[in-house]
Design goal:
Order of helices and strands: EHHEEHHEHEHEH
CATH architecture: 3-Layer(aba) Sandwich
Shape: globular
CATH superfamily: von Willebrand factor, type A domain
Largest sheet: 6 strands, mixed
Number of helices: 7
CATH class: Alpha Beta
Helix content: 25-40%
Structural class: alpha/beta
Distance between the termini: 20 Å
CATH topology: Rossmann fold
Number of strands: 6
Strand content: 15-25%
Length: 206
């Protein structure tokens, strides 16, 4: 893969608290974001004119799946193609517990296998609950930060109204890291679009 400004792994919660309608709202929101003109412009706005995106689903301790492997985006056509691929991706994990730490570790493994050079590596975690089994997210975050990876979070508050504070304390880290919230999955599309813009425009500041 040719060099990019940003390698972005989107880690999507598929635990039991996310029903199939909510999963559809998440994936539909992601797909719609990559069809927006401002996202297409942002992917090509950095010095290298491109970003790379992957999608990982996570739930229980051994329930992680690479839904979409690394894809290079360099403008509107590539962004729309990714949106179509996201729309066509089935739910590969039925969902059980919320092994957030294990999911983050799997996503960091995917970032560690990035097939090229990226100015920045970012893990984008979306979910609606705290870790409830296995390793805590904090150690995975600390490993990521030590390796120069930034972790950002999008907390969906329909299950746990104080989840944003948990994400800020236990999940996010690294240069320019941030956490955002949305009230429920109906608000996910607008929230993830804003989050992606912030992550991609951050690549211009690196």
């Amino acid at each position: 893969m040719e060099a990019v400004d940003l390698g972005l792994c989107l880690a999507v919660d598929c635990s039991a608290s996310v029903d199939y309608d909510e999963f559809g709202l998440m994936m539909g929101g992601l797909a719609q974001a990559f069809r927006e003109p401002d996202i297409a412009q942002a992917v090509a706005a950095g010095p290298r004119g491109a970003v790379a995106v992957s999608v990982l689903f996570w739930s229980g301790l051994r329930e992680q799946a690479v839904a979409l492997d690394w894809t290079r985006l360099d403008g509107e056509a590539a962004s729309r193609a990714l949106a179509d691929a996201i729309d066509a991706t089935p739910r590969l994990i039925a969902g059980s517990t919320t092994a957030l730490g294990a999911g983050m570790a799997a996503a960091l493994g995917l970032l560690g296998r990035f097939p090229g050079e990226a100015t920045r590596l970012v893990l984008d975690v979306s979910g609606d609950g705290r870790n409830n089994i296995g390793r805590a997210p904090g150690p995975a975050r600390d490993v990521a930060v030590a390796a120069g990876v930034t972790i950002n979070g999008l907390a969906v508050l329909n299950e746990e109204p104080d989840l944003l504070e948990y994400y800020r304390a236990e999940v996010i880290g690294g240069a320019g890291s941030f956490a955002m919230a949305c009230a429920d999955y109906a608000a996910f599309a607008d929230a993830i679009r804003g989050k992606l813009l912030r992550e991609m425009r951050g690549a211009l500041l690196a």
